[in-house]
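From the pipeline queue, job 12 of 40. The input is one protein chain; the requested action is below.

Action: predict structure.
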Amino acid sequence: MSTTSSGDACALPAVTDAATCALPGGTPVAVAVPGRTWSGPNQQERFGLLRRARSIAIVGASNNPARASYFVATYLLSSTNYDVYLVNPRETEILGQPVYATLSDLPVVPDIVDVFRRHDDLPGVAQEAIDAGAQTLWLQLGSWNEDAAAIAEGAGLSVVMDRCIKIEHARFHGGLHLAGFDTGVISSRRQLRAR
């Protein structure tokens, strides 16, 4: 499955995610997707990756508020305790944070490399994540590349594909609104709609 033609790969997927989904009773069920053979970490494993991580590098970070990478960076910087590093060779500052040209320029080894890049760039980014010493390669929602997954897994990295790190973090931490926004309120009551 290819991603959007822009550098920001966070379009909604045309098909169901191939990763394991949890049923209300907690029993995992695999979802088969034509053309996909790779199987990623289940819900509990993704939660573990996020819980253990201390730093996240966003490759393909954008200074454009309309881009998903900008929204994800804003969320991670304002709503989590992660050390967030932004990577884009065409920017010097985003959201008041310094931007690094490559993963090798970072002052730390990132635990998770969260990628917003075109489909054809993903194997190269996987190799850069390996070279940087990252533990996890995370390909954003709508981004699926089994070659990149094989490269990263072959070097011992965990791989998550076609999942938004912001949505996953908010879901695991109880702050996900139906529209994907962190409301800051945990309640079993349904929100009233403004007319």
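Job complete. The longest strand covers residues 55-59.
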